[in-house]
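Subject: sequence -> structure tokens, single chain

Hey, anyone have a minute? Need the predicted structure for the following. Not urgent.
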Amino acid sequence: MIPIRPIPALLALSLALGACRGDAGDAPGLPTPAVVTLEQFQGLRWLQGNWRGAEDGDPPFFESYLFLDDSTIRSFTYTDSTFRQAGDSGVVSWRGGAARVVGGPASWVATRFDSGGIHFEPEHGAGNSFDWTPGGHDGWTASLTWPGSGDPPRTRTYRMTRVGS
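Reply:
Had a minute. Here:
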């Protein structure tokens, strides 16, 4: 059974970010990273803050994202809405012209990074891909996709709502 949580980590998405890990292990071949400028990465400032994630019918989960410097975002998952007890953490980073998410032993690289959102593909230790789609100051969407073995891919979509200001 695949744990279903966005990557902080992570999400985080997350962050995936409880990182989402697939049972498949490493993806065959490495994905081609999108070329991302530091200015584009800075555009992720909308991600900073505390978030409540939910999918219809499932209990909510809680994450936060914090810019540590111009090229590193730290993500945390929390046990409840008080944001006091972090349960997991991850890193979203910009290095060498590429954006990556790392949570535990898993890592993903951005293969699309534009105003419509970001698509991350697994690099190591994960079997799922995911998308972050901005939805304004107070919300965004995390969509996680797992390849099916002979079946259509499975997708879970979480609506992330800002908690506090």
